[in-house]
Amino acid sequence: MNDASPEAEGSLRLTLYTRTDTSFSGVIELGPPAHGTGGAYLWHEGSELRISSVAATGGDTIFWMSKLTDEGLGGKFEVTGGPRAGQGGTWRAHLTKGPPATPATLRLPNGRPRAPLSALWPIVLVLAIGLGLTRWVRRAPKRVAGDVATAPAVRLRFDIEPGVSGWLAFFVVAQAIGIIVALTGFSKARNEYTTSIGLGSLVIGMQPLLVLEMTLHVLLPLVAATGIVLVVRRSRYAPRFWFGWLLFSGAYLTVDAVAAQHARSILSGVLGASYDAATANFTSLLISMARGAVASVVWALYWARSERVRVTFGAAALDRTALPLPVMSPSAIDSPAPGRRRRIVVRTIGATVGVIVVLFFIGLWQTRVTAYSVPAGSDIRTTVAGQWTWTTDTEGCANAHTIAFSDDGTVMTIVQPSRTISSTDVTTTYDIKLATQSMIRGAIRGETRLDKDSKPVVWDLVLVGPNTYRWRRNDWTTAWGYTPSIVRCPDATPNGTRSR
């Protein structure tokens, strides 16, 4: 509750996800009408708990004080820095889960963070999928007389000798390299898991995702080694083993990329510049996941369609049953072999998955923004000036913000009605660095977020229509790296508003 507007009571959630022997670290999230969500640092001073938090946006530094209790916290807060410096009020919170923020908790052994039991269900899911795939692999048909692997006429037709060579040899070598990479990177993956599992409590579904990632990182060397042994021994199980694993890998990488992007967007809004700087290489990670998903589907299709696979492991390795394939004249081999129908179905499924993945990335590509240019001779500032609202804001134009420009056009101000602990409207001032027919580039005065070169980020207001714009930050490099759309309020028309 803010002293300046005691009738407007906000909400607060404090999440502590790491600790030392003297302090806690976490995030404090403030709900409407209060704002100031950001990282929090907690320590004890005498009989009181002290909390210092810095808002991810706006940069407000807030100092919270509480008399210690086991089940509740509360006391006074004061904004000591930022646009709302000098404001203050009272707060209270009660414990919902986990140990309390007391000195006794700090004295407990500080082992590695562990995922809660509710986040361990991906392990059960992986085991269930593994059992299902194992049953399917073990039903691979046995070699029979006249199989394509031993039919001279077919070998002459394909002009391929059975054995691990060509693309099959390349695949085996790639998997062997993958085992080495997974083993050498295990320590790094484990450290990333332990440092992220506590942070994952801030985002619904992030902790199970981390458990799934770590489970598969542990299983990858074992699975790849098993598959290589099957290939080298020319086991009839090899085609089904690799086909199933590769399709599962493609699906997992696609889901992982989408979920990771969602989690990052939420954490970026909560933690701000510090988190953005720590995950500056996230775009390259997404690209790597996308490449891995596409490669998995392509190799799955290889195992379903490759002539060398059929020659080496059996004509019906991906079919339910195998029937003898009589040695015929080359002309007779043109007709479909018995038991081929199921293999065709498997190939169709693989091709369908591949098409879905391709369409997914085409959709991402199409979501990139096409800029709109104001007519020649027009000033983009005249078009942009006025009242706007986010398409994601349920209040619509009832919560509209106003854009205005200085007389000389070098300064842009955006005034947003207060939905924070302050009763005063929030004004953001931009120094305009560049203005074109479709874009205004501005630097926020007092910007605290940094790009990869440790410089304050710069924002581009990009028109995508005469009544629509989107924001883009200078270090968002992907083609779809824009905010949701902001649209003009129906009763607000471009009027060239100027302000000093």
How would you portray this structure in words?
The protein has helices at 103-106, 121-138, 152-158, 166-184, 186-196, 206-232, 238-271, 273-278, 282-305, 307-313, 340-366, 380-384; strands spanning 11-19, 23-31, 38-45, 48-55, 61-67, 72-81, 88-94, 386-390, 401-405, 411-416, 426-435, 439-444, 459-465, 468-473, 486-488. With 500 residues, the chain is α+β, with helices and mostly antiparallel strands. Strands 8-9-10-11-12-13-14-15 form an 8-stranded antiparallel beta barrel. It is flat. The protein is built from 12 helices and 15 strands. Strand 6 and strand 7 form a beta hairpin. The two termini are 34 Å apart. Helices cover 38% and strands 21% of the residues. The longest helix has 34 residues, at 238-271. The chain folds into 3 domains: 11-106, Lipocalin (Beta Barrel), CATH 2.40.128; 117-366; 380-488, Lipocalin.
Descriptive tags:
single chain; 500 residues; alpha+beta; Lipocalin; 3 domains; eight-stranded antiparallel β-barrel; seven-stranded antiparallel β-sheet; 12 helices; 38% helix; 21% strand; disordered C terminus
